[in-house]
TrEMBL record, chain A:
Protein origin, superkingdom: Eukaryota
Major place of residence: nucleus
Alphabetical list of PANTHER family matching this protein: F-BOX/TPR REPEAT PROTEIN POF3, TRANSPORT INHIBITOR RESPONSE 1-LIKE PROTEIN
Composition-biased stretches (Polar residues): 37-49
UniProt subcellular location: Nucleus
Signal peptide per UniProt: none
Keyword Nucleus: yes
Residue ranges of domain COI1 F-box in the record: 71-110
Protein name from the UniProt record: Transport inhibitor response 1-like protein
Disordered: region residues: 1-62
Gene3D superfamilies registered for this protein in UniProt: 1.20.1280.50, Ribonuclease Inhibitor
Record's GO cellular component terms: nucleus; SCF ubiquitin ligase complex
The species this protein was found in: Salix udensis
From TrEMBL, chain B:
Biased amino acid composition, Low complexity: 55-64
Gene Ontology biological process terms in this record: auxin-activated signaling pathway; regulation of DNA-templated transcription
UniProt keyword terms in alphabetical order: Auxin signaling pathway, Nucleus, Repressor, Transcription, Transcription regulation
SUPFAM superfamilies for the chain: CAD & PB1 domains
Subcellular location per the Swiss-Prot or TrEMBL entry: Nucleus
Protein name: Auxin-responsive protein
One cellular component term from this protein's GO annotations in UniProt: nucleus
Coiled coil: none
Domain PB1: 105-197
Organismal lineage: Eukaryota, Viridiplantae, Streptophyta, Embryophyta, Tracheophyta
Positions of region (Disordered): 14-78
Function according to Swiss-Prot or TrEMBL: Aux/IAA proteins are short-lived transcriptional factors that function as repressors of early auxin response genes at low auxin concentrations. Repression is thought to result from the interaction with auxin response factors (ARFs), proteins that bind to the auxin-responsive promoter element (AuxRE). Formation of heterodimers with ARF proteins may alter their ability to modulate early auxin response genes expression.
The organism of origin for this protein: Salix udensis
InterPro entries in alphabetical order: AUX/IAA_dom, AUX_IAA, PB1-like
Subunit structure of this chain's protein: Homodimers and heterodimers.
Length: 639, 201
């Protein structure tokens, strides 16, 4: 039963009521966004919408104003007002009011957010929005991080960089997540945007140090270069040396994921000539002695990634005798600490002076015990974000619960990510956290064993939870005390946590768990399911019950075509649906594709899976204005 | 979890069998009850799936028999992408090549007072103090002498010392060999009667 094809508010250009895209705004003004609107000088701005007379820019608008159309005045006013509207949701809503509002909104949107790079073509996006200063693009679905997507699937930055290079020469910021970026793309970026200020690459790949070198050398206004969990190949180009010799505008330099050596002297000189630098996250090739040298050069840092945090092999005594405590003490503004990639626990006490000010601490690469953690964490009263390895055990988590009353986000990663071992953290740690950290909003918890009781406790103790992601690593593990499925625990979470928008489930789960989610998870937007459920009913409950569902990723669960078809009413409201190793057939996917022409339905074949002809191993489908993409690799078929 | 323990014991027996094939490669895929029967494996890593395809039908049927009685036996095969940890993170947490405690050897620097350059030795090669000391004597052409708890090393000008993980310099031989191995960071053979005597008092 398809009741309503009109999409709800979303973050892509999904205005299906206006299918006629051939009508371009005649005010196709390519001038850079105007800054001088604050004085309310709408009458004299250069960027007034041309009234067709062709004299839109520069001249005094008095002649224009003398004979305006009423809606032109309105548009001027609207333009002024809309500049201040920053929320995407509000802007999308405003653009639906009428054509006039649509045009003005398009002209005044400066931050372009594309949640799925294949939902719209670059040409379409750049022709609608003419004065964009910042572009955010997201590419591959999250399960690609776990090798569930063959390489070279897509999400290429290339068509976007060439379209934006032409459309927005004044572009300042590009933020990419899970995109394939090449060195040529980075070079084109560096060449095309003279005022470029911010490059943030999260979980991207396909480029190397030569691409970074291009950005470093050509983007003279660069303030932010953040490489986060991206794969950077070592082209043996020392990109740090490519920054210009003069003083830089750098405020943030994050390269902790870059797995190649940088020339330390060049890095030190760069830090010295970057007086605005506030965020510096070093990679694991920087030793603690080198860290010291950088810290004394940059005591103004607010965010520090400490690199290896261990002495280098070759340097002798000297490194161990440096006064790390006073180096840390001198960094009075330090609020965020990470790194510790190869930590020597004896060096830990050096960070004591900053503990009391820390709001964010990332120990997720530090194999430390509860005993080693306690003296640190007992000082971290202001901590709001804490990432840690399960090596601290339940005891370490109890210490966190005792002190960190302001904790908002906790992530506990497994040191040993296998399935059938005796894990160091369990329901005991979760329970302790729920009792101590009442303001918790977001949790990611990997463990080997869990109980419903602890999850229920958390649902009651932490009413502010927005994100609840529990990963019981053994597949199909029940409550290890009662032997029952984990249905009641997750049920309590959706029932009691009224603000919950993101949920990831695990352990032994029957359809009952999904019934709970469908019944109570009314604002859930993102749901991750793995090895769960009994039958099609599970998926049906969710698709029929969760009106806000945007992103659904499912693997290895017994949901088939009937379940898939039950979501037809909702798929246009979603960013994407991923289903791998479930019970879908090509035929079922075909039915969806035929019913919903604006949905791109991709079936991905994996080499190592033997399957019968009709079986669809991986389904990835998403709404799109662009239709089927042109860069489809041979292992993908679009139905 | 008795059932899983029993299953694990069962797996261990099989793992110690002498046969050709990857360890753990003939465990049945876990979820035969929930996947469509059309599938022959469950997103196992390529090597394992090839193994199970190449085996004869007789072994396959016995695997199915094993599986039927169990409700959710933990399978030892590597499931792609599970647990959901990025491979970057998994790789970072592997012991590194220069880590102290792995199978690749434990090299420490050895300096001798008065010698122009240092040497490196692999402590893992030796099983006891006498072996180590003999090797050092051999390497540097010197005599170290006999260890005694009370008097340190008598009978020569040389005393072997080591730096432990707290940064302190200790006399070689005081602690059990295994403890020494895990705490020794570098060696220094001290020379000169007065300094060497210092340990003895």
């Amino acid at each position: 039963m398809i009741t309503n094809k009109k999409p709800r508010s979303s973050d892509t250009d999904s205005n299906y009521m206006r299918d006629d895209r051939t009508e371009m705004s005649e005010e196709d003004d390519r001038s850079p966004p105007s800054d001088s609107i604050a004085n309310g000088s709408c009458l004299t701005r250069t960027c007034t919408p041309g009234s067709g007379s062709g004299s839109g820019s520069g001249s005094s608008s008095i002649p224009e104003y003398a004979a305006p159309y009423p809606d032109r005045v309105l548009e001027n006013v609207l333009e002024n007002v809309l500049w201040f509207l920053t929320s995407r949701k509000d802007r999308n809503a405003a653009s639906l009011v009428c054509r006039s509002w649509y045009r003005v909104e398009a002209m005044t949107r400066s931050d372009l957010f594309i949640g799925n790079c294949y939902a719209v073509s670059p040409e379409r996006a750049t022709s609608r929005f003419t004065r964009v200063r910042s572009v955010t693009l997201k590419g591959k679905p999250r399960f690609a991080d776990f090798n569930l997507m063959p390489p070279n699937w897509g999400a290429h930055f290339a068509p976007w960089v060439s379209a934006t290079a032409k459309a927005y020469p004044w572009l300042e910021k590009i933020h990419l997540k899970r995109m394939s970026v090449t060195d040529d793309d980075l070079d084109l970026l560096a060449e095309s945007f003279s005022g470029f200020k911010e490059l943030v690459l999260v979980c991207c790949d396909g480029f190397g140090t030569s691409g970074l070198a291009a950005v470093a050398s050509k983007c003279r206004q660069l303030k932010v270069l953040d490489l986060i969990e991206s794969e950077v190949s070592d082209d043996e180009v020392d990109w740090i040396m490519c920054f210009p010799d003069t003083e830089t505008c750098l405020e943030s330099l994050i390269f902790d994921c870059v797995e190649c050596l940088v020339d330390f002297d060049a890095l030190e000189r760069l830090v010295v000539r970057s007086p605005s630098l506030k965020k510096l996250r070093l990679n694991r090739f920087v030793s603690i002695g080198q860290l010291y040298r950088l810290m004394v050069r940059a005591p103004q840092l607010t965010h520090l990634g400490t690199g290896s945090f261990s002495p280098s092999e070759d340097v002798a005594q000297g490194e161990l005798e440096l006064d790390y405590v006073s180096a840390f003490a001198a960094c009075k503004s330090l609020v965020c600490l990470s790194g510790f990639r190869e930590i020597v626990p004896d060096c830990l006490p050096a960070i004591y002076p900053v503990c009391a000010n820390l709001t964010s601490l990332n120990f997720s690469y530090a194999n430390i015990s509860a005993e080693q953690l306690k003296p640190i964490i007992s000082n971290c009263h202001k901590l709001q974000t804490f990432w840690v390895l399960d090596s601290i055990c339940d005891e370490g988590l109890q210490a966190v619960a005792t002190t960190c009353k302001e904790l908002r986000e906790l992530r506990v990663f497994p040191f040993d990510a296998r399935e059938d071992i005796e894990g160091p953290v369990s329901e005991v740690g979760l329970q302790a956290i729920s009792e101590g950290c009442r303001k918790l909003q977001s949790i990611l918890y990997f463990c080997q064993r869990m109980t419903n009781a602890a999850v229920i406790a958390m649902s009651k103790n932490c009413p502010d939870l927005v994100v609840f992601r529990l990963c019981i690593m053994g597949r199909h593990r029940p409550d290890h005390v009662t032997g029952k499925p984990m249905d009641e625990g997750f049920g309590a979470i959706v029932m009691n946590c009224k603000k919950l928008t993101r949920l990831a489930v695990s352990g032994l789960l029957t359809d009952t768990a999904f019934a709970y989610i469908g019944k109570y998870g009314k604002i859930v937007r993102t749901l991750s399911v793995a090895f769960a459920g009994d039958s099609d009913m599970g998926l049906k409950y969710v698709l029929e019950g969760c009106p806000r569902l945007q992103k659904l990723e499912i693997r290895d669960s017994p949901f088939g075509d009937t379940a898939l078809l039950s979501g037809l009413h909702h798929y246009y409201n979603m960013r994407f649906l991923w289903m791998s190793a479930c019970r879908l057939s090509h035929q079922g996917c075909q039915q969806i594709a035929q019913a919903l022409p604006h949905l791109v339905v991709e079936v991905i074949k994996h080499e190592d899976v033997v399957h019968m002809d009709d079986y669809a191993d991986t389904l990835y489908m998403y709404r799109s204005l662009a239709g089927r993409r042109h860069d489809v690799p041979q292992f993908v078929s679009i139905l | 979890m008795q059932r899983s323990m029993a299953y694990e014991r069962h797996l261990n027996l099989e793992a110690t069998e002498l046969r050709l094939g990857l360890p753990g490669s003939d465990e049945a895929p876990e979820k035969t009850s929930t996947t469509p029967s059309a599938r022959s494996n469950k997103r196992a890593s390529p090597e394992i799936s090839e193994e199970s395809r190449s085996k004869g039908s007789s072994s396959l049927s016995s695997e199915v028999e094993n599986c039927e009685g169990e409700t959710a036996p933990p399978a030892k095969e590597q499931i792609v992408g599970w647990p959901p940890i990025r491979s970057y993170r998994k790789n970072c947490l592997q012991p590194r090549k220069n880590d102290r405690v792995d199978g690749a050897g434990m090299y420490v620097k050895v300096s001798v007072d008065g010698a122009p350059y240092l040497r490196k030795i692999d402590l893992k090669v030796y099983k006891s103090y006498p072996e180590l000391l003999e090797a050092l004597e051999d390497m540097f052409k010197l005599t170290i002498g006999e260890y005694s708890e009370k008097e340190g090393y008598n009978g020569s000008d040389f005393a072997p010392t080591y730096e432990d993980k707290d940064g302190d310099w200790m006399l070689v031989g005081d602690v059990p060999w295994d403890m020494f191995i895990s705490t020794c960071k570098r060696l220094r053979i001290m020379r000169g009667s007065s300094e060497a005597r210092g340990f003895g008092c």
